[in-house]
From TrEMBL, chain A:
Membrane topology of this protein: Peripheral membrane protein
One GO location term (cellular component): clathrin adaptor complex
One GO process term, biological-process aspect: intracellular protein transport
Binding site for a 1,2-diacyl-sn-glycero-3-phospho-(1D-myo-inositol-3,4,5-trisphosphate): 348, 350, 352, 361, 363
PROSITE patterns on file: CLAT_ADAPTOR_M_1 (PS00990), CLAT_ADAPTOR_M_2 (PS00991), MHD (PS51072)
Protein name from the UniProt record: MHD domain-containing protein
GO molecular function terms listed in the Swiss-Prot or TrEMBL record: lipid binding
Family matches, as InterPro entries: Adaptor_comp_med_subunit, AP2_Mu_C_sf, AP2_Mu_N, AP_mu_sigma_su, Clathrin_mu, Clathrin_mu_CS, Longin-like_dom_sf, MHD
Provenance organism: Oryzias latipes (Japanese rice fish)
Compartments where found: Cell membrane; Membrane, Coated pit
């Protein structure tokens, strides 16, 4: 298991050092600094073996987190734990920075003592941790016996992510369907690969221990119901649907630990008792019938050895009533660019020498529109034999729909012990589609 | 809250000041001081001098302060064991605290203090905490047992904590179960044979129930533990799989990977024709793909694992090629891994896409990545024949870029393409030659030289090109030197007139001016070949080369199996067994995949083989491996003459090689004006007796361009190395004929159906690096034969088979070499019949008919033992004269008589007689007394021992009685078994 955990700043100074196993000595701290942080070359692997000691590291801004072990540990678990550690720290004190870590080092030690025992990860749900690890540090003494046992049963219990006795005057929940659409397109407009990775983020402000059931237009569920003869259900969604498909094929999905996986496996229904506040209910991935919000048509021409002509057309491909925002097109330029002249129909475009790219920004763009940029790039003559690698043109944007076509059908809330019903809960749903890696080769 | 100030105190006298503050009356000041101490400790300052002062702060109600003091204690207790005792009282008291959080904290911390005296005091509180009413305390105590075990294993056993821990597996709280499982698994690892976890269907059921309820981390512990279990049958295996599959949808990648591990392992037991098997395969792909949208570090772990999974079960990911396409801003470690998997998945169906991608990658920035991409294009060409042409043209385009490392890499792979598709793409040689000057890496130079040598006849200035390399011969790396030597010899054989000088030059450079034994030996071999028999030299050096395999970098199958059992762990990331990077006893156990179901045979085989006397270690009678290997190598060619005639196809070559030993040597000495000053001169025709000199064929396996030395194994044989290697390497052209010959032999050999037992597995593939041998013995037309089926279950080609027997009771020994003519490619089986004689050395074995065998191939030497039916030793002239029979029967003392029963045999006495005769058991006389038939039988063994028998058959009674009389009574038992076997089959 994990033998020790170190946090370093960018200079390689140790900010936190916690050793769990006897086989990890102080020299491990230095070994990582010398061989990884101060290494001359770029890091070639997130797992490094130095003198039979394995180091796992992740980096958050300029902070290094390293887990150390001498055993054959579960590597996936170690990385998952490091990410979790980052989440927990962020939940407690915000951004992970040298300043914040130094300011909270006592707290971090306390957390490390709690969530990692002899190198075995323990309950690391912030909701539960916050009930007994507090920055005040004095809560322990004032707890009643009931409170104490409530804490311990929550930390170890089946529903470790939610405490009992939560009360809200207004029962409310927010669902955000956040998708990132990824595309790799050939210069000829052929889709080389495209997928949507989506997340359903839920903010729940519900009293008691509510039992929730979430439904979406999952093809498997809809088809099953269709077979069952519920024709009017299909008709209903036809009416409401408006744009796009009735159901979508989900390639794969993963769920927050509150979701009963065996139930999903057998009935494909998503039922759970949610944590309080914000959390990620599920992640999913689709590859079929994706709505690609933008199409990029590049045209790059090399005029002699010292000039490039670039023309890029973007076309929006969604309902005209919807507006895309924060559109940014990034056209890479060769390293030996000496000057650039740009003309664009819409928005602003600038050549950024430090980034070796022309950045074209458009604030808003409605569906079924088209816009164009053309640029002349002057090049310095070089005798570098290697050709310019022509990195792909990338795009960023945000659209108010889900490119996968996912629709939330319902989120039902049941709390039998308290007197509020599903109808009393105020529910909000929002769809945001963002560009992931959205690239067109040129 | 600005605790960062604690990090900045650097002034002198700090320790003294801290001491004062720690002893202050004010609580706040104390706490501040402890924080400063911890901060100093973190950055590596030695603050152990403050030990007593810090420990004094321990008695406090402030939980935060308490935790800080504990942290300090854990760090320094070991260096101050005597003072650490001061803390014991507080710990013991805290373990009784009404607040469960404090009880748990105390027991958790105590377990981290590695001081003997403290551990003694820990036992009682720990025992209480293990049975605490609060689950939080119990789950902490469970881990504490593992801590204590790490400090003092004996203590844990003596105190009975292991049993308490086992009980916790049935705890009502899932987290307690998970921690108990984790602790037990760890303890079990250091006691490989303790059966601590004692996994049985009941506990498995408990674990599976807890799996649904515990935290994500607990699920990982449980799944990792489940993976160590071996289900009893395919039904149990399926039911576990069914309950594990829902985990594939977990958000935590480690849970997913551990579930994949369990499924991959248990799948081995499911019959392939089961519907569920197919369903399961389909379910595995999506979660694996989803792992690729995780953070890059996890992607890396996932990709390393997918690489293993794809090798073991290619069908899972075969439609998922696209997800492995490299993204521009993937970290380099992700890019390289994706590329690897892309090549593994490349097939005719997706090759166009793959090639287009690879071409993109070849223009990227990262040198390693570009090189790998170029190499990948070459591998595609070799793997998918239809794409070869496109690949070659892509490579040519890349060569045109003139980017140095791209060109070199391209040349290396083009060489392989030439090997794979001879006489197809040689038109590009001219382009390659243009780039000769820019090559500065040994591998690329060697590849280019190989190409020049191989196609010397098509390159007009081949001699000039090679000569230019020769100038700096001694500065080249060995790889290039060896290649240059071979290439020039090839050139000489192709264009002898113009290149005599060149070849002399290189031979003398290699033999006289080099200290490298490989190079020198190869030089001498060529020299001698060329000077004795140029025709033979041509046939050897320019021999047809064996095919190169399509897949490269495959992990050796047994290692792969082990790594599959370690999915998700570091071993799967490093692609190395845990023993390679873990110190001490932990993780040294080798894990194995369970045997597949359905084929009950292989599941049972461990037992059958163990009854046959096979043990993992070579049996004690067999000399140590080294000696035996030496023996195997010393097997000279003489036995061949007593066996069947040498294989016709290889005679030409063989004679060439033999000639070398005979008269050829004289001419070498005579003709050469400057004979090499070599030990070879001492090689008179007895050279087979110089084992040290004989290069075993494996020595050459290091040569990068496999087989470029042409028939080097043959040369080896000529010098007295394993003779079997020779037919193996020459067999390729005409193996068919020889197989026929054997088929014929086996057809003729059974005039009356002599009994031969069915084939059984003698050597399991798992124990022999993928070589499986099953076989039987038979006597056909008076010749004893060992009939074997060799099956290659490994990924690489096997060649150079040889066989040797240990001394045995009847002096059985091979009458000729093992005739495996063609290299045995993966998944291929070959039938071999090895004629045996009984003139070998004799040693009594137990059981009498036990035979210990060593089989060698290009991979290793393997040992097994088998038992032969003694009936195959019954000779044809075993019919005794009646008079002599009578006299002998009387003559043999009665104590030498043994009686046996043959049960459930429903043959008439005549049928018995006939049947026995087929196996050379002769009926001398028959008598009928009171409805009872008495048969008098005789048998003669190869070593001249006679065994006489009286067989009583009562009409209507299926049980026969047999009395055996023999001067050597110890054979009776075996002979009886043969009677029984013959009669019942």
């Amino acid at each position: 298991m994990i033998g020790g955990l170190f946090i370093y700043n960018h200079k390689g100074e140790v900010l936190i050092s916690r050793v769990y196993r006897d086989d990890i000595g102080r020299n491990a701290v230095d070994a990582f600094r010398v061989n990884v942080i101060h290494a001359r070359q770029q890091v070639r692997s997130p797992v490094t073996n130095i003198a039979r000691t394995s180091f796992f590291h992740v980096k958050r801004s300029n902070i290094w987190l390293a887990a150390v072990t001498k055993q054959n540990v579960n590597a996936a678990m170690v990385f998952e734990f490091l990410y979790k550690m980052c989440d927990v720290m962020t939940a407690y004190f915000g951004k992970i920075s040298e300043e914040n870590i130094k300011n909270n080092f006592v707290l971090i030690y306390e957390l490390l003592d709690e969530i990692l025992d002899f190198g075995y990860p323990q309950n690391s749900e912030t909701g539960a941790l916050k009930t007994f690890i507090t920055q005040q540090g004095i809560k322990g003494q004032f707890q009643t016996k009931e409170e104490q046992s409530q804490i311990t049963s929550q930390v170890t219990g089946q529903i470790g992510w939610r405490r009992e006795g939560i009360k809200y005057r207004r029962n409310e929940l927010f669902l955000d369907v956040l998708e990132s659409v990824n595309l790799l397109m050939s210069p000829q407009g052929q889709v080389l690969s495209a997928h949507v990775s989506g997340r359903v983020v839920m903010k729940s402000y519900l009293s008691g221990m509510p039992e929730c059931k979430f439904g979406m237009n999952d093809k498997i569920v809809i088809d099953k119901q269709g077979k069952g003869g519920a024709t009017d259900d299909a008709a209903k969604s036809d009416l409401g649907g408006g744009s796009g498909k009735q159901s979508i094929a989900i390639d794969d999905c993963t769920f927050h630990q509150c979701v009963r996986l065996s139930k999903f496996d057998s009935e494909r229904s998503i039922s759970f008792i949610p944590p309080d506040g914000e959390y990620e209910l599920m992640r999913y991935r689709t590859t079929k019938d994706i709505i690609l919000p933008f199409r990029v048509i590049p045209l790059v021409r090399e005029v002699g050895r010292t000039k490039l002509e670039v023309k890029v057309v973007i076309k929006s491909n969604f309902k005209p009533s919807l507006l895309a925002q924060k559109i940014e097109v990034r056209i890479p330029t060769p390293l030996n660019t000496s000057g650039v002249q740009v003309i664009c129909m819409k928005g602003k475009a600038k050549y950024k020498a430090s980034e070796n790219a022309i950045v074209w920004k458009i604030k808003r763009m409605a569906g079924m529109k088209e816009s164009q940029i053309s640029a002349e790039i002057e090049l310095l003559p070089t005798n570098d034999k290697k050709k310019w690698a022509r990195p792909p043109i990338s795009m960023n944007f945000e659209v108010p729909f889900a490119p996968s076509g996912l629709k939330v059908r319902y989120l039902k809330v049941f709390e039998s012990k308290l007197n509020y019903s599903d109808h009393d809960v105020i529910k909000w749903v929002r769809y945001i589609g963002r560009s992931g890696i959205y690239e067109t080769r040129c | 809250m600005t605790d960062s100030k604690y990090f900045t105190t650097t002034k002198k006298g700090e320790i003294f000041e801290l001491k004062a503050e720690l002893n202050s009356d004010k609580k706040e000041k104390k706490k501040e001081a402890v924080k400063k101490v911890i901060a100093s400790m973190t950055v590596g300052k030695d603050v152990s001098a403050l030990f007593p002062d810090v420990v004094n702060c321990m008695q406090t109600d402030n939980l935060e302060l308490k935790k800080l003091v504990y942290l300090y204690l854990m760090n320094y207790a070991k260096s101050q064991p005597d003072m650490a005792i001061m803390a014991v009282n507080t710990f013991v008291k805290d373990c009784e605290d009404p607040n469960p959080l404090i009880r748990a904290l105390a027991v958790r911390t105590m377990g981290c203090i590695r001081v003997d005296k403290i551990t003694e005091y820990l036992c009682e509180p720990l025992r209480k905490c293990l049975k605490d009413e609060d689950p939080y305390v119990r789950k902490t105590a469970a881990v504490c047992v593992a801590k204590l075990h790490d400090i003092n294993a004996q203590l844990v056993e003596d105190q009975g904590f292991l049993d308490t821990l086992k009980d916790l597996i049935s705890d009502s709280n899932p987290m307690v179960v998970a921690n108990a499982v984790a602790a037990l698994s760890e303890i079990a690892e250091s006691h490989p044979n303790s059966n601590l976890l004692d996994l049985n269907p009941q506990t498995i059921n408990k674990l599976l129930t807890a799996l649904n309820e515990c935290t994500e981390w607990g699920q990982i512990f449980i799944l990792d533990c489940l993976a160590n279990y071996t289900p009893r049958d395919d039904r149990e295996s399926q039911s576990i799989c069914e309950r594990v599959t829902p985990r594939l949808s977990h958000a935590n990648s480690a849970v997913v990977l551990s579930a994949v591990k369990v499924l991959m392992k248990f799948m081995e037991m499911l019959p392939k024709d089961l519907d569920y098997y197919g369903t399961l395969l389909k379910k595995l792909a999506p979660p694996l793909v989803t792992l690729l949208s995780a953070e890059p570090e996890l992607q890396y772990v996932a990709l390393r694992n997918i690489n293993l999974i794809v090798q073991r079960r290619p069908e899972i990911m075969k439609h998922e090629m696209k997800v492995f396409f490299v993204k521009y801003n993937d970290p380099i470690y992700v890019k390289l891994e994706k590329l690897d998997i892309m090549i593994r998945l490349a097939s005719q169906a997706n090759i166009a896409q793959v090639l287009a991608e690879l071409k993109e990658y070849a223009t990227e920035v990262d040198v390693d990545f570009v090189r790998k991409a170029v190499r990948a294009i070459g591998r595609c060409a070799i793997k998918v024949e239809q794409s070869a042409e496109r690949c070659v043209s892509t490579l040519l385009d890349l060569i045109q870029t003139k980017v140095n490392y791209v060109v070199q890499e391209a040349i290396v792979v083009i060489k392989d393409i030439f090997r794979k598709y001879p006489n197809k793409y040689e038109s590009v040689i001219a382009t390659l030659c243009e780039n000769l000057d820019s090559l500065d890496e040994p591998e690329a130079r060697a590849a280019m030289i190989w190409i020049v040598g191989e196609y010397a006849e098509r390159i007009d200035n081949a001699d000039e090109l090679l000569e230019s390399f020769l100038e700096g011969f001694h500065d080249e790396s060995t790889q290039v030197q060896l290649q240059l030597l071979t290439a020039i010899v090839k050139l000489f054989l192709k264009k002898p007139t113009e290149t005599q000088e060149l070849v002399q030059q290189v031979l003398s450079l290699a033999t006289q001016d080099s200290d490298n034994p490989d190079l020198r030996d190869r030089g001498y071999i060529y020299w001698r070949l060329l000077s004795t028999d140029p025709v033979a030299a041509k046939e050897v050096v320019l021999a047809e080369k064996p095919l190169i395999s399509e897949e490269t970098d495959l992990i050796e199958p047994t290692l792969l199996e082990e790594l599959i059992c370690h999915i998700g762990t570091l071993a799967s990331v490093y692609h190395k067994p845990p023993s390679a990077f873990v110190e001490g006893s932990r993780g040294v156990q080798h894990k194995r995949l369970p045997c597949s179901a359905g084929s009950g045979e292989s599941v049972d085989s461990p037992e059958t083989s163990s009854t046959a006397g096979v043990s993992d270690a070579p049996p004690a009678v067999i000399p140590s491996q080294g000696d035996l290997l030496g023996d195997l190598l010393n097997l000279d060619l003489t036995p061949t003459t007593t066996g069947p005639p040498p294989p016709a196809v290889s005679t030409g070559m063989q004679l060439g090689a033999m000639d070398l030993l005979g008269g050829g040597l004289d001419s070498l000495m005579g003709d050469e004006s400057e004979p090499p000053p070599v030990p070879l001169r001492t090689d008179t025709p007895q050279s087979p007796q110089i084992p040290n000199q004989s290069p075993s064929p494996t020595d050459y396996s290091t040569s990068e361009l496999g087989g470029d030395l042409g028939g080097n194994p043959a040369i080896g044989a000529g010098f007295g190395a394993a003779p079997a290697a020779m037919p193996a390497s020459f067999g390729a052209p005409g193996s068919g004929g020889l197989d026929d010959l054997f088929d014929l032999g086996s057809g003729v050999g059974m005039p009356m159906g002599a009994y031969s037992p069915p084939k059984s597995v003698w050597l399991q593939a798992m124990k022999a690096k993928g070589l499986e041998i099953s076989g039987t013995f038979a006597r056909r037309a008076g010749v004893i034969q060992m009939e074997m089926t060799l099956t290659n279950k490994a990924m690489s080609v096997m060649t150079d088979f040889a066989i040797q027997f240990n001394r045995n009771s009847f002096g059985l020994s091979p009458a000729g070499p093992l005739q495996v003519l063609t290299p045995l490619s993966p998944n291929q089986s070959i039938e071999v019949a090895l004629p045996l004689n009984t003139s070998g050395p004799v040693m009594k074995m137990d059981p009498l008919n036990n035979l210990q065998v060593a089989v060698k191939n290009n991979i290793d030497v393997f040992y097994f033992s088998c038992q032969y039916p003694i009936s195959m030793l019954f000779v044809e002239d075993g019919k005794m004269e009646r008079q002599i029979f009578l006299a002998t029967w009387k003559d043999i003392p009665n104590e030498n008589e043994s009686q046996f029963q043959i049960k459930d045999c429903h043959l008439s006495s005549d049928a018995v007689s006939n049947k026995l005769q087929g196996s050379n058991i002769f009926t001398i006389a028959k008598r009928t007394v009171d409805g009872q038939d008495m048969l008098y039988l005789s048998v003669k063994l190869t070593n001249g021992i006679w065994v006489l028998a009286e067989l009583r058959i009562q009409a209507g009674n299926p049980n026969y009685t047999i009395s055996l009389k023999c001067r050597a009574p110890e054979v009776s038992q075996c002979v009886f078994q043969s009677y029984e076997a013959v009669l019942k089959n």
